[in-house]
Amino acid sequence: MIRFLEARFAGHRTDLVEADITPWRRAVVGDLTTAFDFKTPNRSRPVTLPGTDDFKPTVLVRHPDQVPAPPANQRLPGQERGVRPARPIPYTLHTDGRASEEMFSIDFGNSGGAAAVFQVRSAGSAQPPRTYTVEPGKHLADTWESVSGYDLYVHGPNGYFRGFKGGNPGRQHARLDVTASYDERDRTIVLEIRNRSSARTEPSRATRVSSTAMPAISRTVRTASAIPRWADCSSKPPAARLPEPGFWRASPACGP
Predict the structure, then answer these.
(1) C-alpha angle 37/11/40, rounded to 5°?
(2) Is the pLDDT of residue 208 over 90?
(3) Rounded to 10 degrees, what is the CA torsion of 50, 53, 58, 64?
(4) Residues 233-239: what's their mean pLDDT?
(5) What confidence tens digit (pLDDT) does each residue in 164-204 have?
């Protein structure tokens, strides 16, 4: 309610702005202004509610509890066909990882119109989950110790996911950076694969379309989506040409 009063009456008066509201709360919590129509406040909008007469119970006598019986031939339920329609969301998120000999860093970016919360989970039990809140138009970064390898999974709103897995790259392996970005016009995910070492490797997508990463050269791969604004792809080189032990990148995510 305080933020609503600020948005409605503060204007350029700084004395009406509550100083005790933290920047995190201002980024995450709304101000209720979208729930009102201040342009035409006196316009009547009659609301017609559906009738409830058909929902009135016809039998008011209590019956004994019914014990459910499992079917004789059981089987797992199948996935319903088609895509369920959804309203547009205000998120355009980016998560890029980069490995070194001792640390693995992740950069969280938010170019959308609403604050987003990321949670990073490690496959190992030694590191607890970490949570990050990124305001619109901003980004932040954090690092993880990777001397013995890394296996990190980034989760965000609306099914957003990124996966980073690998061992210590060392000096004898190729060092790949895989950056994912969106092409809203063509509805594709753009993967930029850059080799930061002198070794050659051939990372391939989950669709088994390979792209050779030459030393110190970047290669761009486009991944089309069968479902509008969704993509599901990963990069993993053949075992004989691993850039580092267990290298893997996954970018299944909902587009902007």
Answers:
(1) 20
(2) no
(3) 30
(4) 53
(5) 888 765 544 556 777 877 777 777 777 777 776 666 666 55
* Residue 149 near residue 83 (C-beta atoms within 8 A): no
Q: How far is 176 from 192, CA to CA, in rounded Å?
A: 10
Give the whole-angstrom CA distance, residue 213 versus residue 194.
7
Q: Which two tokens stand for residue 201?
A: 């490797």
DSSP track, the chain:
-HHHHIIIIITT-GGGS-TTS-HHHHHHS--SGGGS-SSSTT-----PPPP-GGGS-S--S--PPPPP---SS--PPPPPSS-------S--EEEEEEE-SSEEEEEEEE-SSS-EEEEEEESSTTS--EEEEE-TTEEEEEEEE-TT-EEEEEE-GGG-EEEEEE---TTTS--EEEEEEEETTTTEEEEEEEE-SS--B--EETT--B--B-TT-EEEEEEE-SSTTEE--EEE--GGG-SSTT-EEE--EE--
The Cα 26–Cα 39 span in angstroms is 24
Q: Which residues does 103 contact at the CB level (< 8 Å), separation at least 6?
A: 143, 144, 145, 146
Amino acid at 173: H
Q: Span 211-218, mean pLDDT?
A: 42
pLDDT at 17 over 70: yes
Q: φ and ψ at 62, to 5 degrees? A: -75, 140
Rounded CA-CA distance 239/193 in Å is: 18
Cα(242)–Cα(99) distance, rounded to whole angstroms? 14
